[in-house]
């Protein structure tokens, strides 16, 4: 599935980057180019990052 239309980055590429140890939005941007144009894909990239983080370390946004 394409996540970043501007840079033609798919979810497999982002997951592969996450598995290589790059787990920040900035790092994903630098490695893949995702989020570097219009930024509309940031929500999707963040969701993939959150899915990748083990539950124990996940940031819980609700109280
Ligand atoms: S859709 Fe990713 S930067 Fe535009």
Question: Could you explain how this protein is built, in words?
Answer:
There is one protein chain. This protein is mainly α. It has one domain: BFD-like [2Fe-2S]-binding domain (Arc Repressor Mutant, subunit A, Orthogonal Bundle). The protein has three helices and two strands. Strand 1 and strand 2 (9-10) form a beta hairpin. Helix 1 crosses helix 3. The longest helix has 11 residues, at 42-52. The protein is globular and about 35 Å long. The termini are far apart.
CATH fold annotation: Arc Repressor Mutant, subunit A
CATH architecture: Orthogonal Bundle
Helix and strand pattern: EEHHH
Low-confidence stretches: none
Report the C-alpha radius of gyration, rounded: 11 Å
> What structural class results from the helix and strand content?
mainly alpha
- Into which percentage range does the β-strand content fall? 5-15%
Q: What's the total helix number?
A: 3
Helix content: 40-55%
How many distinct folded domains?
Answer: 1
How far apart lie the N and C ends? Answer: 32 Å
Average pLDDT level = 91
The CATH H-level homologous superfamily: BFD-like [2Fe-2S]-binding domain
Under CATH at level 1, the class stands as Mainly Alpha
Adjacency order of strands in the biggest sheet = 1-2
- Shape descriptor reads globular
Listed once per kind, the bound small molecules are: FE2/S2 (inorganic) cluster
Oligomer: single chain
Total number of strands: 2
Instruction: Please describe the biggest sheet, giving its number of strands, its sense, and whether it closes into a barrel.
Output: 2 strands, antiparallel
């Amino acid at each position: 599935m394409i996540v970043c239309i501007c840079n033609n980055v798919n979810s497999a590429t982002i997951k592969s980057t996450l598995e290589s140890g790059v787990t920040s939005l900035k790092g994903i941007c630098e490695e893949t180019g995702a989020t570097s144009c219009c930024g509309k894909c940031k929500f999707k990239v963040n969701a993939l990052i959150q899915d990748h983080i083990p539950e124990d370390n996940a940031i819980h946004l609700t109280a």
